[in-house]
Amino acid sequence: MRVLKLLADTDHGLTVTELSHKLGVNRTVVYRLLATLEQHALVRRDLGGRARVGLGVLRLGRQVHPLVREAAMPALRSLAEDIGATAHLTLVDGAEALAVAVVEPSWTDYHVAYRAGFRHPLERGAAGKAILSARQPRAEDPGYTLTHGELEAGACGAAAPLLGVTGVEGSVGVVMLAEVVPERVGTRVMDAAREVAEALR
């Protein structure tokens, strides 16, 4: 696991010698560890002999969404009931935002139907824009993003990025039918995003 974590934290891969130093074990042990990981396609070595994360981690990664969804559900339920709007957890998938968990409020007469599996460009909608804001934080950023009518006419969105969760890039937000997002919603989605981040750590 330490080998995979070290390799995941570098873009250019690591040599056996570098891994040996970082792990504090001799090169023979590193060769054995890499050989085992290579058998499972979790590690590959390039022509220069540098070890990198292998494509096998993608197969493992497919199982991440259900675990993330499960961890996020209590905070999403609380957010949906408190605000009276559809709450969602959205993760990055390439250049798109992918809704992986959605909770609709139980007490409202109407609300926006928003389904898990819904995708949209990161540049449109509160969920995607909140994620992008975390990539390039600005001092004047309030910590949440508000949008109106970008994904659906008449619908407003508010979202806050997930912060401090290694390997997970996403946001928590709500979508509602309104002319303006009520003032307290921004702070509330930030609180929910913090709760989800803590559950994922």
TrEMBL record:
Record-linked InterPro entries: ArsR-like_HTH, GAF-like_dom_sf, HTH_MetabolicPath_Reg, Tscrpt_reg_IclR_C, Tscrpt_reg_IclR_N, WH-like_DNA-bd_sf, WH_DNA-bd_sf
Database matches in Pfam families: HTH_IclR, IclR_C
Gene Ontology MF terms: DNA binding; DNA-binding transcription factor activity
This protein's record includes keyword Manganese: no
Residues covered by the HTH iclR-type domain: 1-55
SUPFAM superfamilies named in the record: GAF domain-like, Winged helix' DNA-binding domain
UniProt-listed SMART domains: HTH_ICLR
Transcription in keyword set: yes
Keywords, ordered alphabetically: DNA-binding, Transcription, Transcription regulation
Annotated IclR-ED domain residues: 56-201
Any one Gene Ontology BP term: negative regulation of DNA-templated transcription
Signal peptide residues on this chain, from the entry's feature table: none
Protein name: IclR family transcriptional regulator
The species this protein was found in: Streptomyces caelestis
Taxonomic placement: Bacteria, Bacillati, Actinomycetota, Actinomycetes, Kitasatosporales
